[in-house]
Amino acid sequence: MKIIVCMKQVPATSQVEIDPETGAMKRLSADTRTNPYDLFALETALQIKEKTGGTVVVLTMGPGQAEAMMKDAYTMGADEAVILSDRKFAGADVLATSYTLAQGIHVLGSADLIICGRQTTDGDTAQVGPAIAEHLGIPHCAWVSEILRVDSDSIEVRQDLVSVSQISRMHFPCLITVDKDMCVPRLPSYLLKKNTEDRPVKILSFEDLPDKDLTRYGLIGSPTSVAKMFAPPASDSQVYFEGSADEKTKSLFDVLTSKKII
């Protein structure tokens, strides 16, 4: 079985620079870390590999500094790592990002199973995984909380969808996005770090992708844009309400209404 795990580097701090013209985040302006949800995706893939055999390939789109994240994936047990890196990919929204990743998956020879984290901590859209599946024309299940069974040609999962729990079965190839309660990501292995320190991380550029229509990538291929991005101001102030439960509820409602929160 071939499993592709889509991962992303996200800012490790709220102190990031924003391009005033495009509204896009300057990803080289701050320290980064692996998106926490993607660690659950990688662990899920490794556990499936241990049961069924096969390979785990990690894929990301971003600048060259993402190589550090990919090296970390090697220390957890990933077999291959690929970065989609090109200035033409910069400023991509959900549509352009998912299309670029789908094109990268085509270059890798597709996969039986594609696993993504539920969402990223910078964009929080939770849309890239399902959008990749739509671009590839394959079935997908989002918000997966448990892998129930993996056969030679299909996978059965449990989805926690806010108010309901649903069991779904899909034939390969397919895509899932996993939630943080899925598993506990393993710690990096020192032995794997020593054994994989010379293992290369493959870099793919725009020229390596099968579709070279520039209107599908980066800022040009993004129908949505960020009008404004900012970190909310920190506040240590607290408000206490006195009275009965009904009185407190009314007081809270009045405050939230006056601040136009509701």
Task: Describe the model.
About 25% of the residues lie in helices and about 25% in strands. It is of the alpha/beta class and about 260 residues long. Strands 11-10-9-12-8-1-6-7-13 form a 9-stranded mixed β-sheet, sandwiched between helices. A two-stranded antiparallel ribbon has the order 2-5. The longest helix has 17 residues, at about 35-50.
Q: What is the share of helical residues?
A: 25-40%
Instruction: Enumerate the strands of the largest sheet in spatial order, edge to edge or round the barrel.
Output: 11-10-9-12-8-1-6-7-13
- Look at the helices and sheets and give the structural class: alpha/beta
The gyration radius over C-alpha positions equals 21 Å
The largest β sheet comes out as: 9 strands, mixed
Give the count of helical stretches: 6
> Uncertain segments of ≥5 residues (pLDDT<50)?
none
Overall pLDDT: 90
SS strand fraction:
25-35%
In total, how many beta strands?
13
Alpha carbon gap, first and last residue:
49 Å
The coarse silhouette is globular
